[in-house]
Every structure is written in structure tokens, then in C-alpha cells.
Design brief:
Keywords: Kinase, Phosphoprotein, Transferase. Its EC number is 2.7.13.3. InterPro entries: PAC (IPR001610), PAS (IPR000014), PAS-assoc_C (IPR000700), PAS-like_dom_sf (IPR035965), PAS_fold_3 (IPR013655), Sensor_kinase/Photoreceptor (IPR052162). It comes from uncultured Microcoleus sp. GO terms for molecular function: protein histidine kinase activity. With about 375 residues, the protein is an alpha+beta fold. It folds into 4 domains: about 1-60, 2-Layer Sandwich (Pantoate--beta-alanine Ligase, Chain: A,domain 2); about 70-175, Beta-Lactamase (2-Layer Sandwich), CATH 3.30.450.20; about 195-305, 2-Layer Sandwich (Beta-Lactamase); about 315-365, no CATH class. It is built from 11 helices and 15 strands. The strands form 4 sheets. A 5-stranded antiparallel sheet has the order 5-4-8-7-6. Strands 10-9-13-12-11 form a 5-stranded antiparallel sheet. Helix 10 runs antiparallel to helix 11. It starts with a helix and ends with a strand.
């Protein structure tokens, strides 16, 4: 087929006297090369063929073609401006971002049609100046569509040596909506956390510190959020009651091996900033794990149950005292047991009582416990 093509072109050169150009490919050392043959008619019996290697040109053309296709099909809006700032190229994505139907609508127009007001002024005074100094510049901006509606965009500019500018634009409307929704969600969550009478916290077991706590930490334990974050491990004896801190490792193991979303509960005593002990009931769940599945962070709430614990102790003491009286011959004989119960409850080592006699004229010393 190749030989037939060359013979036909030779004959055409003879018949018309015109130069015939033929491009073809041939293998050279196992690699395919491109060639161009120019066939020139000389005399009835003679033609001249001039052959040159055009492999590099063909490869460059192929690369340019692929780049052109890529630019045309890119999801980012791409435009090229000449040194005067006029649009000389624009792909379909850019037309869509700015709401134009055809390339003819913007070819030869100034880049200024894509912005207005304060944003246009910013580009004229700041962005172009920075582009000239640095050669490239990226920024977020608010573009202006053909119908004058606004579109949030991300702009990347590159200045070429001849003064032309490549402008790549990405529509970030969806990202901005997501960011706005996230901010609203965070605001809502913060309002809930701020209004909650309970302590809300996130504790990092690897870093051994509280990374988040709401303001209720101050009202319940007397520490500011910054202070509690700087304290470090909350199960250490200086903060958690020693009798309770020994229960924490087993409790955390339960949390780590529990089902997703499962809530765990534990009661313990935490030292208030004023030195007193406060009873807290915590309800915790897994908040984050490491890549290898180990427990990293727990999310929990802490409720102050100190008053209810004190009420429970008072009821227990009252019941014990009542039982002691009921099992004794009279109040006087029950008094040592009652004193013992009181001492245990309030942490005293001993106590005694002075009780009026029946006629009220003397005080009698009771048995001491």
C-alpha cells in the first residue's frame, strides 16, 4: 500500500508539475519514525525526492494536541489572556462557570468582565501587581457571571514571558456551602455545649490530656478550660481519688472493646480546685481510634452527683442510727454506736456527748467512742 501510494504521487508530480508531499512512517532500529518526502518533477524521465525526519515535530504536535484536548475537557475553567488582558482562549468549563453559552461572547473581551465592584478593584490594585512581581498568584475571589450573579471561585494566575496570562478558575460554591454548613453546625454544637449543666469533654488517652471541655468544668470543679487542659492525666492521684483511680484502666478497657456507639458509665471522685472532693458520674463512648484500632479519644459527659451522694450517706447514717437505737435497751446505751457511726461518716477519730439528766439540772458524760 505504501509503494502504491508513492508511485501514485510520483505520477501526479509528473502529470501536474506540482510538488507532492507525502508523510509516512518506517521502523528504524526497532522504533517507528516519521518522515516527510517532497517529490519534485524535473524532466520526463527524472524526479527528485527530498526526504526529512519529522519524528520530533510529530511528537510535539501529538503532545500539543493532547494538551489542547485536556484543556478543553478539564473541569477547571481555563483562559489565556494576551498582553493587553484580552481573552484569546477559553475552555468550555470556564464558559459554564461564568454562565456564557459560546466562546464568541468573550473572545477579545477584557478579563474585567469577570469581576465587578470591590473585587475588580482588588484585582487591579493588588492581584495584578503581585502577579507581575512573583510570576504566579493564587487567591479566592468572587466572580461575576454573565447575568451579574456572583460565584465563589479559586483563581490561579501564571504570567508567561511574552506577557500573556494563563488563568485557571475553579468553582468552589459547593465547598463554601459545606464550610458554611460546618460553621453553623459548630455554632449549634457550641450553643448546646455552653447551655449544658454537665461537663462535656474529649479526653485523649495517647496525649494524656483533655483536648476539649465546656464551661461547665469551671462551675462544677472550679477549673478554667485552659487549666484543665494543662493539668494532664485526670486519673492521677492529685486530681482523682486514689480509691477510684485504680478502677480506670479496667473501665477504659471496657470502652475500647465495646460496641460502636455503646455508652459506658462510671462514678468517681475528682478534687475541686478548692481541695474538696466532688462525686462525678461519667458517661463515655469511643470518639476516635488509632490506625491500628487502639482507643485514642473518648467523648463523655460528667454530672455532679455530690449532693445526691451526700444525701445517700445521710440516709444510710440515719438508718444505721435508728437500727442501733432499736437494738439497744435505751438511748444512752445506743449512744456509743451512734457516735461511732458519726465519726466514720465525718472522718473523726473519737467523739463524746454530754446529755442533760432527767430533771435537766446536770449534764451526764456519755461513753466515749
Amino acid at each position: 500500500a505504501f509503494a502504491e501510494k508513492i508511485i501514485a504521487r510520483n505520477q501526479q508530480a509528473i502529470d501536474t508539475g506540482e510538488i507532492q508531499v507525502v508523510e509516512y512512517q518506517m521502523p528504524v532500529n526497532g522504533e517507528l519514525y516519521d518522515f516527510e518526502a517532497r517529490i519534485v518533477f524535473c524532466t520526463e524521465d527524472e524526479i527528485i525526492a527530498i526526504v526529512r525526519d519529522i519524528t520530533q515535530r510529530k511528537r510535539s504536535e501529538s503532545l500539543l494536541h493532547r494538551q489542547a484536548v485536556a484543556m478543553a475537557q478539564a473541569s477547571e475553567g481555563i483562559a489565556i489572556l494576551n498582553a493587553a488582558g484580552e481573552v484569546i482562549y477559553c475552555n468550555a468549563a470556564r464558559l459554564k462557570i461564568y454562565g456564557y453559552d459560546s466562546l464568541e461572547e468573550i473572545l477579545g473581551k477584557s478579563w474585567k468582565i469577570f469581576y465587578e465592584g470591590a473585587e475588580l478593584q482588588r484585582f487591579e490594585q493588588e492581584v495584578l501587581s503581585a502577579l507581575v512581581q512573583k510570576g504566579s498568584y493564587s487567591t479566592e475571589a468572587v466572580g461575576c457571571r454573565r447575568d451579574r450573579s456572583k460565584v465563589p471561585i479559586e483563581v490561579s494566575l501564571t504570567m508567561l514571558p511574552d506577557g500573556e496570562i494563563i488563568c485557571i478558575v475553579r468553582d468552589i460554591s459547593e465547598r463554601k456551602q459545606t464550610e458554611a454548613a460546618l460553621r453553623e453546625s459548630q455554632r449549634f454544637t457550641q450553643q448546646i455545649a455552653g447551655a449544658s449543666p454537665n461537663i462535656l469533654y474529649v479526653y485523649d488517652l495517647i496525649e494524656q490530656r483533655t483536648i476539649y471541655a465546656n464551661a461547665s468544668i469551671y462551675h462544677i470543679l472550679g477549673y478554667t478550660v485552659e487549666e484543665i487542659q494543662g493539668i494532664g492525666p485526670w486519673m492521677k492521684p492529685t486530681l482523682m481519688h486514689p480509691e477510684d483511680s485504680i478502677k480506670i484502666p479496667d473501665y477504659l478497657q471496657q470502652v475500647e472493646t465495646g460496641r460502636e456507639g455503646e455508652i459506658f458509665e462510671i462514678e468517681y471522685r475528682i478534687r475541686h480546685k478548692d481541695g474538696s472532693w466532688r462525686w462525678i458520674v461519667s458517661r463515655d463512648t469511643v470518639f476516635a481510634k488509632t490506625a491500628d484500632g487502639k482507643l485514642k479519644q473518648i467523648l463523655g459527659t460528667g454530672t455532679d452527683i455530690t449532693e445526691s451522694k451526700q444525701a445517700e450517706d445521710e440516709i444510710k447514717l440515719l438508718l444505721a442510727a435508728t437500727q442501733a437505737i432499736s437494738q439497744s435497751a435505751d438511748f444512752h446505751s445506743a449512744l456509743p454506736e451512734i457516735l461511732r457511726l458519726l465519726c466514720n461518716a465525718i472522718g473523726w477519730n473519737f467523739a463524746e456527748a454530754w446529755i442533760p439528766t432527767a430533771n435537766g439540772t446536770f449534764l451526764e458524760h456519755s461513753e466515749t467512742w
